Amino acid sequence: MKIPQQGLSAQDVMQQLNSYRQQDLNWRDGKTFSYIYDAGQEVENICKEAYLAFLTESGLDPLSFRSLLKLENDVASMAKNHLRGDDEVVGTFSSGGTESIILAVKAARDYARHERNITQAEIILPVTAHAAFFKAADYLGIKAITVDVNPETYKAETSKIAAAITENTVLLVGSAPSYAHGVIDPIAEIGQLALDRGILFHVDGCIGGFLLPFMRKMGVAVPDFDFTVPGVTSISMDFHKYAYVVKGASIVMYKNKNLRKYQFYACTDWTGYPVVNPTVQSSKSGGPVASAWATMNFLGENGYLDLARQLHEATQKFVAGVEKMPDLQVMGTPEMTLVAVKSDTINIFHVVDEMKVRGWHIQAQLAVGGHKENFHLTIQPSNVAKMDEMLVDLEESVRAVKELPLSPIPPQLQSLLGAVASGSVPLDNLGALLQNAGIQGDKLPERTAVINSLLNHLPCAIRTQILLNFFNEVFRSE
Ligand SMILES: Cc1ncc(COP(=O)(O)O)c(C=O)c1O
């Protein structure tokens, strides 16, 4: 595409833009179990109205845009109360879970550098910690040390974390809950370990930090995971998940200002204006923070409680339904609204495909470190009314899959797979494998069980390389 010589009419621009949406996932039908947190039209409307009202304001300088400073301070104050922080607790609004996590890891690295003289920082990650921590370690030049989780509960094991601590450990990490299996790590135990060893401890509440307190208020047994737990020094919590705010809204909270200051960045060594950035982003729109402020004020505690009740019931219904299907097993005991399902008898990736044929979008998760491949649901409000229909289709899908081979990998691909896994095919020459698996350019085939099964068989380093190569092709500038 080239910038047109003569601009188009506003109507033509919008028509063209909207036409591009035709191939998008149709999430408005309530049959999508990831990406989207849809609390209905009214909530979407207020989100958008507030977003649009502040879209054009700049978050680069909070002293020039006092409205944005006020909104951020209000949002941080709501988050502090929600996570039961004392008067010392402070936060920073960010663009999403990944940014909040990168900021918390940076703060831990720089705190350790300045206050403990650690220059070769390490963080300890249960294998179930979100990829954002691995990314943060990669970006920030920190060593990520992975520890396994309990093979039955999928929760982090404090003894394994303790054994991995070295004199360079700057941060321990626990999830409340983890994305993949929806279980809460033993936060109180890890907090005690962190206190005993004088190490910072981040709780990843990106997906659960907002919803879990409402579930506790409903009477569900939710273990303490917030600032009431001794040893917890920072928490990330996303508004663009279960607070139902549009994308670009999260917060990272710290036990006190002395910790948070290591997250900030300032530069006066250049010829331009003095830069002080609390976040990774510098110039940023005021839309997301206004949207977060508006949505929380619009729904209120009662609105969120009502949605939490519906989600809890729908999750219980799904788990009970799966437990009646002998070919499927729920992994661990889901403690919120995230469920992973595996099978010992059928290929779970075929189930994902069969569900897609029936209009459902569910995520495939690959096997890692001996933990089996599975499919994952993030249950959100628009799924609630669809749960009975979904269970009927799931049962039918399992029946259909039983007619299919356990391994969908055709024989010619088996030998190529062996060659790739043993390293005898150069990593940047993996196009043949993908083409044989049905990938055409940037288009995935309708059924993805072959691709998922191939990736599932390969070591993580090779999978990663294949995916990087593929996405490097997907983004083009033709
Ligand atoms: C537990 C957890 N942490 C971090 C993230 C990353 O959040 P984001 O996708 O907003 O960057 C997610 C996203 O699902 C998550 O579930």
UniProtKB/TrEMBL annotation:
Keyword Protein biosynthesis recorded: no
N6-(pyridoxal phosphate)lysine PTM sites in chain numbering: K241
GO cellular component, one term: membrane
Keyword Endoplasmic reticulum: yes
UniProt KW keywords: Aminotransferase, Endoplasmic reticulum, Lipid metabolism, Lyase, Membrane, Pyridoxal phosphate, Sphingolipid metabolism, Transferase, Transmembrane, Transmembrane helix
InterPro entries registered for this protein in UniProt: GrpII_AminoAcid_Decarb (IPR050477), PyrdxlP-dep_de-COase (IPR002129), PyrdxlP-dep_Trfase (IPR015424), PyrdxlP-dep_Trfase_major (IPR015421), PyrdxlP-dep_Trfase_small (IPR015422)
GO biological process, alphabetically ordered: carboxylic acid metabolic process; sphingolipid metabolic process
Pathway membership, UniProt: Lipid metabolism; sphingolipid metabolism; Sphingolipid metabolism
Recorded superkingdom: Bacteria
Compartments it resides in: Endoplasmic reticulum membrane
Similarity-based family: Belongs to the group II decarboxylase family. Sphingosine-1-phosphate lyase subfamily.
Protein name in UniProt: Aspartate aminotransferase family protein
Source organism: Uabimicrobium amorphum
Higher taxonomy: Bacteria, Pseudomonadati, Planctomycetota, Candidatus Uabimicrobiia, Candidatus Uabimicrobiales
